[in-house]
Amino acid sequence: PEGTMAFAGKYEFEGDENYDAFVQKIGLPSDKAEMGRNCKIVTEVVQNGNDFTWTQHFPGGHTTTNTFTVGKEAEMETMGGKKFKATVKMEDGKLVADFPNYRHTAEISGGKLVEISTSSGVVYKRTSKKIA
């Protein structure tokens, strides 16, 4: 069912599109860009109603965790490790967040986690398959 509980689970990076163009556009430092390229990131989503804990596990033990409630401002961390405040919204079953220099959406489509980040017309798409 396409309910609010659709996000919970663990997802492993499967593929992406436009990575290089996107990280250049948002000014990600090259070491960080290299770390994220074709990286088998495992995204773990814990959901309790509108409350989310969204953790990305990078190879080598680095993790980034964002905790937020849909519709309420929360402190988040970007791909580059910068902290900022954002309000995550739910639109048509997608989670939508406006990061400082890009817009990020996440949805479950065909059992996969599909994340799309858009910055000045450059669209970066990352797909992860459910592993747990």
Strand line-up in the sheet with most strands: 4-3-2-1-11-10-9-8-7
Give me the CATH architecture, please: Beta Barrel
The value of Rg in angstroms is 14 Å
CATH topology: Lipocalin
Overall number of strands: 11
Largest sheet, in brief, is:
9 strands, antiparallel
Give the total of domains.
1
Mean of residue pLDDT values: 90
User: Helix-strand pattern, N to C?
Assistant: EHHEEEEEEEEEE
CATH C-level class is Mainly Beta
- The CATH superfamily is Calycin beta-barrel core domain
Helix content: 10-25%
Low-confidence stretches: none
Based on CA inertia axes, which overall geometry fits?
Answer: globular
Sheet/helix structural class:
mainly beta
Number of helices: 2
Instruction: State which percent range the strand residues make up.
Output: over 45%
**How far from one another are the termini?**
17 Å
